[in-house]
Amino acid sequence: MKKTLLALTLTASILMFFSVSCKSPMPMQNLSSPAGGMTISFGGSSRTVVAGWESQVTSYIITITSRNGHATQSKTETSSGVVTFPSLEPGSWDVGIVASGPLGPIGAGTSLNNEVSAYSSSSIAVELSSTQTGTGGYSFTFAFPAATGIDSVVVRLYGTDDVALIQEVTPTLVTSGSLVTGTVAGSGIPSGIHRLALAFFRGGLSAGVFCESVNVWDNVTSAQWVGADGFLHSQRTLEAAEFVSTDVTLDQVSLASNSIPLSLSPEFSPGTTNYTVVTGTTLTLTHTGYASAQTIELQQNTTLGPWTSVGAGYSVSLAVSPGSIFYVRVTAGNRSTRATYTITTVSDAHVLYYGNGADGGTAPIDSTVYSAGSPVAIPGNPNGLTKAGSIHCGWNTRADGTGTNYPAGDLLPAGSPSLVLYAVWLPSSRLRIDGTGVFQGTTKPTGDLIIPDGITIIYDNSFSSCPGLTSITIPSSLVTIGARAFQDCPNLRKITVAASNPAFSSLDGVLFNKTKSTLLAYPMGNTRGLYSIPSETTTVRSEAFIGCRNLVGMEILGAKTVESRAFANCTNLVWLRIGFKAIIGDFAFQGCTRLTDLTFAGSTNYGDLISLGYGAFQGCTGLTSVTISASVRDSGFAAFSGCTGLTSVVFATGVRAIGNQSFYGCTSLSTITIPSSVTSVGSQAFFGCTNLSTLICNPTTPPSMPSGSQAFDNTSPSLQIKVPFALIPAYGIATGWMDYWTKFSVQ
Q: Could you tell me the fold of the domain covering 253-346?
């Protein structure tokens, strides 16, 4: 009401200023900031077989985009190499490179969150990979010293998913002087980056596995090697030292049961050969050492008889029961150093805890034998574990923290096998939250952030703008989270909440309140492209999805309230479905510049109304057409202002009001038809639609419009307002409409 009164009383010049100032302001430029610079090297990877770039690419467009609102910069180069941007505002910058050939783009590469500091120049490298969808070939020549005694090589080419085996060959080896060479080639290979694994054998035993990459391009045979020196070479030469190793640790062995990672007990240490592992009815051993010369062999129940060899990158599964014994034999790359490890399986009814490098206190001891389906409550740190310079942040299924996190108070799902759990330690310099919930760390946290149990509150913006943050685990004690606490964390993929937390919950990595009636925060780096708000959720909190660049499609079905700026600047959002009874808040989708497919649920029932807030779709420049269904009774205050790509707006019969500034500045609109159901047209509704030349009015009673409303000001000079002949007198004397009587024509 306040905005409407302003529009009715201010002068035309002030109205124009007011309407512009209601839009999102341009980011302020800090003109006095000392500049920095960025040097970007680009081309193929330093470990990639590539086609000669000069034969494929005719131009490179290098674009750098500020995350702090500074002006985007771009350069075009004709060859790969190095490009410098000497004068940049300090802050975080994204780099994008598109390589084009005669027929269009054929490759691309990105580097995100590159920091530029004042008075200094940062250097980054961007690897370009194929964006083509055809096929090509490769030819790779390798060499190694004859003195290594290697007598055969098996080469495997894997797909872009790093799993599917595309090709396996045994190349012919040719000895010339002190070197042995071999060549492997392939054709009809799908374009993209593939892994090339070279397995070397000496007397039937593995002498090492080395992995390279092959960048395959459409209709080209990649035949040159980019070496560590950055120059192209005709072959990859391996040194004798690369085939000599005395490593017999278990670092290249991983264990799992039903896809759940397992850990040895005690923790592995050189010299210890007897271990136990908690498992279910199956156990899978994987040789992960793609670049290791180790030989891994497996034997169950006895060390006699033949051993089963586990090739690099391969797995072997065993059926086990409590008390089963199996042996792992590791032979080093020198073929003479060897160690045998005994591993005994134990019942899956225990939970074991380890201090994982603690220097004080003791780990919890749980002697309970759990029956199937019994829940297991994870403790905090009851016995005072400590580690110098670190904070205890829960428990993990792997000693290195790469497994599954279990914060204090969490419950293992019923029926899950029990676990070996390791204390999680984070350096105190990375994470220190004082008693008021304010982040006190000396550096921004990166990786997996685990909020320590005992913290009850986190204030506004506590962890915003942490580009290295990938996941957050919230303990049961945390009951208050301030606004924008995790905002602008571009690589944050998931938020996990302890099951026993009384205030919050999570679903698929998304943060909700306890009952899931309110969606609080969607991780900015979540890789999901399509998302539908859960049926039990009725409210999407303000700025919950702001800047989520991976979102492509969104469904908001049912009675939902979408608060202000909830989806603002989701720049890759392409399609959007809005259901009945939705309430869309102010600027909810502002700046979604690629939104092209917008659908409102259609209904004529008054109870199914959709409400659009101020500037709901402001600046969605990718929108070309919009159908305002009958369920949208009011097109909203400035709801589509600045949508410069709009060429078509269709109002369904049943729409009652066209709001103030609804289509302000939609410069591509040329024709509008107002249906018979419309009873009001707001101030400046189509102001600045400079190509609007035809307005067809179907209401038999002129819709109410304020005097001096400027509803159709600054449109095309040739604007015709088409009215049925019998209604021209009524429109000619109607308030607001009489301002445009010279534009009237007969339908």
A: Immunoglobulin-like (2.60.40)
